[in-house]
Amino acid sequence: QNGLKQCLSEFKQQLAWVERLDVTLGQAVDPVSQSASSKDGVDPENDFQREMSFYRQAQAAVLEALPRLRKLQVPTRRPDDYFAEMAKSDQQMQKIRQKLKSKQEAMERSEKAKQLRAMRKYGKKVQTEILQKRQKEKKNMLNAVKKYQKGLSDKLDFLDEEQTMSQGNKKGSASQQMKKGPNAKRRYKNQKFGFGGKKKGSKWNTKESFNDVSSFRPNVAHNKGPGKAGKRGKKALNKRPGKRARQKMKNRAR
Question: Which keywords, in A-to-Z order, does the entry hold (predicted)?
C-alpha cells in the first residue's frame, strides 16, 4: 500500500483547473418542480428516468463550468470557419455514400416499376372497355339485322347510325388534316418541284431566245478552232498511207 501511494505521488501532477476541466456535481434543478431529483429516486430500469438523470447532471456541469471558463477568457463557442477531422475515414464515408446511393437508385427503380405496372393495368382496362363497347355495338347491329331479315322490325336505323358514324369519322379526319396541313414529305416535294404547275413546253424557244446569239461560237460549233486543226494535223502525220499509195511508192523505189 505504501508503494502504491509512493507511485501515485510520483506521477500525480498538480495542474490548474483549466488544464483538467473536471467538474463533479449532482443533478441540476428541475425548472418545473424546482427541486433536484435525488440519486436514490432514479429507477435504473426506467429508461426515461435514467437518461434524464444523465442529462440533468451534464446540465449542472455546464452551468458550473461555463462561468469559470468565461472568467478565464477561454472561448466556448465554435467559430464559423472551424474545421475538424471526422472520426471515420474517407474510404468508409465513400462506402457509406455508395450504399446510400445504391439504396436510393433501387427505390427509384421500384417506384418506376410500380408506375409502369399501374399504367399497364390502366391501359389494359381502357382497352378492354373499348373492345367490350365495340362488341356490344356489333352485337346490337347483328340483332337488328336479324330482326329485319325475319320481318320482326321494319326499321333501318342501324344503317343510318353506321353511315353517320363513318361520315363523322371522315369529317374529323379531314378537319384534322386541314388543321395539321401537309406533312414534311409533301412540303419538301412542293419546295423542290414548285407546287406543280405547267411542265410541258417549259424548254421551248421564244422570240427573244431565238434572236439572242450572244453565246454562239462558230469555231466551236463547226470544229474550226485552233485546237481542232492541231489535232487534225497530228492525226494526218501519224496516218498510214493507203494500199495504192504504198504500191506506187514501191514502184518508184524500183
Answer: Coiled coil, Nucleus, Ribosome biogenesis
Confidence of residue 105 (pLDDT cuts 50, 70, 90): very high
- How many domains is the chain partitioned into structurally? 1
Q: State how far the Cα of 33 lies from the Cα of 41, in Å rounded to an integer.
A: 14
* Reported pTM: 0.30
| Torsion angle of the four alpha carbons 122, 127, 133, 137, in this order, in degrees rounded to the nearest 10 | 170
Evaluate whether residue 29 is within a structural domain: yes
CA distances from 115 to 12, 71, 93, 120 (A): 70, 64, 33, 9
What is the distance between the alpha carbons of residues 80 and 82, in angstroms, rounded to a whole number? 6
Reply yes or no on whether the pLDDT at 180 is more than 70.
no
Query: Is position 28 within any domain?
Result: yes
65-67-70-76 Cα dihedral, nearest 10 degrees: 50
CB contact set of 193 (below 8 Å; sequence gap of 6+)? none
